[in-house]
Amino acid sequence: MRPTLLTVAVLLAAPLIGGCSIADWLRPYRIDVRQGNYVTPEMVAQLKTGMSPEQVRFVLGTPLIVDPFHRNRWDYFYRFAPGRGAATERRLTVLFRDGALAELQGDIEPAAADSLVPPTRVIEIAADPK
Length: 130
Description:
- By secondary structure, this protein is of the alpha+beta class.
- It has two domains: 1-30, no CATH class; 33-113, Beta-lactamase Inhibitory Protein, Chain:B, domain 1 (2-Layer Sandwich).
- Helix content is 23%, strand content 25%.
- The chain contains four helices and five strands, in the order H-H-E-H-H-E-E-E-E.
- Strands 1, 2, 3, 4 and 5 form a five-stranded antiparallel β-sheet that branches.
- It is flat.
């Protein structure tokens, strides 16, 4: 009986491929939780100062928070909590002055301009030999 218990204890403590032990595999499944507005760097790169709130809403979507005391401020928050691992958070604040986009604050940097241009493809059509 003792060798069997010792074998089970060693198997539970020994790490498997990827640094996980059997004890990690015996835990119940936990889902990934995504909350808020997912804003990509490509979306931020499309924003230009002077855009109307409707144009900003078209690019970024409806803001998660519109403060009734600060109507010229929209907050976009995103939080991703994987089932196993550390959660990540991202934030973007859009500020308007006189009904136009004035400033962006947050930790989402705009994408490089060359990554926004879709690749072009040239299709050559042979002339009809009539």
